[in-house]
Amino acid sequence: MGGGRHLATDFSYQIPEGTIGECWAISGHPHGPNIITNGQYKGQLLPKVYQQHPELFGNPRSSVFPLLTKILDANASLSIQVHPDDAYAEEHEHELGKTECWYVIHAEPGAYLTYGHTAKTRDELIKMINNHQWSKLFSKKPVKTGDFVYVPSGTIHALNKGIIVLETQQSSDTTYRIYDYDRRDKKQVSYASFI
After folding, report:
1. Which domains does the chain have, with CATH numbers?
2. What positions carry a catalytic annotation?
3. Residue 49: which region, alpha, beta or left (left: phi > 0; alpha: psi -120 to 50)?
4. Calpha distance 111→39 (Å, rounded)
5. Over the stretch 76-123, which tens digit does the pLDDT of each residue have?
6. Contact (CB, 8 A) for 29 and 102
7. Whose CA is closest to 72, among 154, 153, 6?
């Protein structure tokens, strides 16, 4: 929900008709691993090459490919969400947490992110979420083309209409939705009181 056509028009991705908001450009995650398209390892999955040839990646300490790079096209405001830290994600989701960063490829004039919240205490945060006080709860952050934004795990955030970003994050597919503008899709809205 909320995607556009920029992945096709600006980045030449072969995508189906309709709106698409996300491309996993570099991924070793089990939900969407890349297949290497040329060279000595052509046809092999990126995570397999990573595990069998760690020297190609600087002999990393992680046994799993640690990063996921996406292009996100927000043609409408995306779900307001939060991601867990490593400890919580390991215990409850059995994968890495998700800290991420965004390089703003394009932002329309007046574009902004939802970034952070106004609650002063955990109890106030939970109360505002439970009472659906969305306009009072969420903080806005103006952005422009060329900005770089760090989004540590536990930060409430969302891209809003008219923003395209290159996102680099930990290799995790765990997202807890807080608010989705009363839209409905197949993903369940989750209230994350651990923020």
Report:
1. 6-26+66-179 (2.60.120.10)
2. 177
3. alpha
4. 41
5. 999 999 999 999 999 999 999 999 999 999 999 999 999 999 999 999
6. no
7. 6
